[in-house]
Design goal:
- It is a single chain.
- The protein is of the alpha+beta class.
- Helix content is 48%, strand content 22%.
- It is built from 16 helices and 15 strands.
- The chain is elongated, with a radius of gyration of 36 Å.
Length: 473
């Protein structure tokens, strides 16, 4: 029997065979090289011959279309022939762009979050999260007094989220040496003081111990020690105003701390026994300037401040650290704006890269689009093939960006290889804080926006006709 055979090849994956017998019969058949896609031969039968109202028919038809799209998309990524030679460099650049963008976003969020957390801890280490004091408008360091035996404060200690409550008192004074004068604030603390913050930032000596009588031992900062030429064990004189007369006091350095917050903190606070401040202010042992409150969760600071104000007596007032030092926290809030701008720019660059790469891929494979349409593929099917292909590239770029970004974050966190000028940035090394909710949100947002943008360039597929596309070269 005389048989004439013609074979058309589509993208190296599907062979369309046309056989013409001597009796005039023409038989068309298609075969797929991979055994994984043998069910694709049922595509035309399912489309034109099966029962249209059968749920199983629609399921098999949809599955065959999905397998067909998956096969073509996979071949576009893995083929090694000359097809797609123009789009490959553009695709690599787009993937690298997404990788760098995701890495930069992760580093930005981790560094900004770590920097804010580090500065916040240092500020609250000096002034706690919430302070309770007499209800007045006095903003000087010569604070008003209150009785430390407050029944309402005992109720504050029972509020969920309150970690610690401690008393304090302050007195402004001047340190005098042979050649220098330095205005400072003598902050008195008691046996209930939480030394965790100062132990972490102690560079010399030890923290204070409180004997039965008032001690003259104090903690000073490294800034004060350098400026006034002091060291552990050395004595120095301070002078305080009490009405119209000056009171001198002699103190001995017990320890030296360094937090890096030179402006307003390290250059100001000398930590001493609260009984020294009580004597300087002519107070008895039951009189203090106020209470300091430490909380478990900083994100609940505002709500806990409201709860504390509702709990304490009406002649007392509670203010949180954001209200006491608004300039510092306003500056920290601006960092969030900077981080948001960087994230928006990186996502925008990634979207532009993927749109450009997809346009080049469509132009480079115009002939393939024409053949697919000639074989009966709809615009929607071809569009999904290209979107699926580009979506895989987005996932590769996001995954690589996560590996590089998180790798650098952990390397910095455990080694501290990137350093900063502490006098300018208040920290000696770049701080890192990884918040997994933020990382997942960044990944999801990047994938979602880049994928949605892909549907704009694939609309070009609807304007490609089979006749012109097959002739395109």
């Amino acid at each position: 029997m005389n048989v004439r055979k013609k074979v058309f090849q589509l993208n190296g994956s599907i062979q369309i065979t046309r056989r013409k017998f001597s009796d005039g019969r023409i038989v068309r058949s298609n075969s797929v090289r991979s055994a994984q896609y043998t069910r694709l031969t049922a595509h035309c039968v399912l489309k034109y011959c099966a029962l249209p109202h059968c749920a199983l028919f629609y399921y098999l038809y949809a599955m065959s279309r999905a397998l067909f799209e998956r096969m073509i998309s996979s071949r576009m990524l893995t083929q090694k022939d000359e097809s797609g030679r123009m789009s490959r460099p553009i695709v690599r650049v787009a993937v690298i762009g997404i990788t760098v963008g995701v890495m930069v976003m992760i580093l930005t969020v981790a560094v900004v979050t770590g920097f804010q957390d580090e500065i916040r801890k240092k500020v609250t280490g000096f002034g706690s999260h919430i302070q309770i004091g007499p209800f007045d408008t006095n903003e000087s360091m010569e604070s008003d007094s209150m009785n430390r035996n407050q029944p309402s404060v005992e109720l504050v200690k029972q509020i969920p989220g309150i970690r610690h409550v401690q008393v304090f008192a302050t007195k402004a004074g001047i340190i005098k040496s042979k050649e220098q004068l330095l205005g400072v604030v003598l902050k008195g603390v008691g046996t209930d003081f939480d030394w965790e913050f100062f132990k972490k930032n102690l560079v010399k000596g030890t923290v204070l111990n409180f004997p039965d009588t008032a001690t003259d031992r104090v903690l000073i900062s490294q800034y004060m020690a350098d400026k006034m030429q002091l060291d552990v064990g050395k004595k120095f004189n301070m002078f305080f105003l009490s009405g119209s007369r000056t009171r001198p006091r002699s103190f001995r350095v017990e320890g030296i701390y360094n937090t890096g917050l030179t402006d307003g903190f390290d250059d100001r606070f000398v930590i001493c026994d609260i009984r020294q401040v009580q004597k300087l202010n002519d107070w008895d042992s039951s009189t203090v300037a106020g209470y300091e409150i430490l909380v478990d969760d900083y994100s609940r600071l505002d709500s806990l401040t409201v709860t504390v104000n509702e709990t304490i007596d009406y002649e007392l007032n509670a203010m949180n650290i954001r209200e006491l030092t608004p300039s510092i926290f306003s500056w920290l809030d601006i960092l969030d704006v900077n981080a948001a701008i960087i994230i928006v720019l990186m996502i925008f660059v990634g979207m532009i890269n993927m749109v450009s790469a997809l346009l080049i891929m469509i132009i480079d494979r115009t002939n393939m689009i024409g053949v697919l349409k000639a074989l009966g593929a709809t615009n929607w099917m071809v569009m999904r093939i290209f979107v699926r292909n580009a979506g895989r590239l987005i996932l590769v770029g996001v995954l690589a960006g996560n590996v590089l970004g998180l790798g650098l974050c952990y390397l910095q966190k455990f080694t501290g290889f990137a350093t900063l000028d502490e006098t300018s940035y208040y920290v000696s090394v770049v701080p890192i804080e990884i918040v997994w909710q933020d990382i997942l949100l960044l990944n999801g947002l990047t994938i979602l926006l880049c994928t949605l943008t892909l549907w704009l360039p694939v609309l070009l597929v609807t304007r490609i006709t089979p006749v012109r596309a097959i002739r395109f070269s």
